[in-house]
Every structure is written in C-alpha cells, then in structure tokens.
Amino acid sequence: PSMKLSTRHKIELFIFVCMLLISFSLFRPFVRVLESKVSSLREKALAELEQTYHIRISYESLSPSVLRSISLKNVKIYDADNGAEIAACSDFSIRYRFLALLTGKIPDILDSVFIADGFIDFDMLENKGLASALRSLIRNPSTDTQIEYAEDRASAPSVFSSGIESLTVDIKNIQIRLKDAAQNVQVRISEGSCRIDSESLSVSLNASASYKSGTYPQFGQAETAFTIEGKCDKDITAGSAVVNIAHLSSQQFSVQHIKVFTAYRNNLLTFNTMQDFQPFDLNASWNLENNTVTGGFKCRDYMPMRSVALYTAPKLVKQLEQLEMSGSARFSLGAGT
After folding, report:
1. pTM of the model
2. Are 325 and 299 in contact (CB under 8 A)?
3. Which one of 5, 48, 65, 113 has the largest count of C-beta atoms within 10 Å of its C-beta?
C-alpha cells in the first residue's frame, strides 16, 4: 500500500509541474508585452519631461506588480539645464488600470499616485529654464489664440478629458521651498490629497508654511498652519474652498484662528469670513480682469485687540485692549485709487 501511495503522489506532482510549466509558457509572452508597454511609456514620459519641462528623473529601484502598480524608491529630480537636484522622495507609487494600459488609452491609465517623505527646492533664478516652462504651462492664452488653444486642448490627452475614470494623488510629509531674489516661501505638507474625475477636481490639504521677504526684512518671518478643503470644475473656471488658518504670526504680530470661505467664478474671486464665535464679518471681491478689489466689514461689540496682538506697538495701542467696535464700512481698491 505504501508503494502505491508513493507512486500516486509522484504522478500528482508530475502533473502539477507540467501544468505549472504550461501555464508559465502561456503567461510569459503576455508578461513580456506588458513589460514592453510599461517600459515604452516610461521612456516617453522621461523624454517629454526633459525636453518640455527641463527636468531629469532618476530612481534607485523599481518594483512592478505586473497587473496593478509600479513603486519607485528614492526618486530624485534634477534641473536638466544645470544638473541641480530640485526634488526627491523616498516613495513614489503609481497604480494603473491594466486594461487601459493594454489598449493604449493614455488618459485612463493612471488610477492613483502616492508620494511620501520628500522635498521640492525651487529657485526662480537658478532654475530659470524650468521656471519659464512652468509659466508657459499655466499662462492664460491670449484672446487671439483662444480658439486654437481650445481645439488643441480638445484633441490632446488630458487628465480632464471626458473619457477619464478617476485619478487620486495622495502626498505625505513633503517639504516645499520656493525662492527668488525678493522672497522665500517654505511649506510643509503633512497630508494632502487631490481627486480628479471627468467633472471636477477636489483638494484636501493639511499644512504649515513660512514666508520671509527680502524687501521688508523688518517684518521678520511670518508663520502659519492651515487646512484647505476645496473643489472646482474640470476646466478650473469655477470653484470654492474653505481655508481654516489655525494661527498667523511674525515678529511684529499674531492673529488668532481665522476661517474663510472663498469662491471663484467668471474671473471674480470672493472671500468671506466664517468666524461665528467673533462678532466680526469681512467680505471682499477681487476682479482679476480689471484688478480691482471691493468689500466691506461689519461688527458689533468687537474687541480687535483680543484677535490681533501687536508685539512692537507703542504703549498707547496696548492700552486699547478693552476697545470695543460696532459699525460697518465699505472699501474699494483699484488701479486708479
């Protein structure tokens, strides 16, 4: 009986190995096709980034999951013009849609992107070529080229194209520094996400920031911590957001908690405070077309010195801590005022 059992096990093992080899031989060409498509897309993307946006990308290792994702470790981004390292991250992961990759539907390939533990260090003077490319990317087209631009945009693949399913970008622990001759801005993003579909773009951000002006060094460095929750349409022509500022401070002053609702539509950017716990309301509208600002405020029994602290103010101002205000006013600012 033991001999028969051993023989049966050997036969079963042999059949299993044969099936495994057959499956592998059938699957191998399929894997090669997929690897070829992924490699082709990667090379095209790297070439486009260097030629159009003046950046080069390197990474330490690539870990593909054939049917789902690609994970890059220790990614570094360089200015292609001068070789300076301008960004890096320890983890850059992309999840893609398998069927879209096979069929070549470029706008639908990406499903999600995750970026963690990195930095962006951008100097407008040292990275002139890249800065110029970015300005060209975000610059509004002139009236003469509106139709041409619209036609090009309609025919070009875009993450906002009507065929896109969805795209999610999540970031965690990213430091950003932007600098030019007159100012230095630093932002630390603890957590952030951006979700895009065929209709809209939504953003969630938890961050802190600092700002230092070389033109006005007497104000020192201003610091803040804030959250943003917002959404806009697919063409970024209309949207709204809630900005929650935990604090705003510098060597000269500090401001308590501020919560603002903002909206944008038809070249008009509006702001409205949401501080129900303070008897103070401020609203303003900025017309981006003619660069004018209008607004107003109203208050009742408002004590401004409890919301704003002035560290270098004269004694007379400090004696106004119990000052109460009631009333309303309107204001207007423009090129001729």
Report:
1. 0.70
2. yes
3. 113
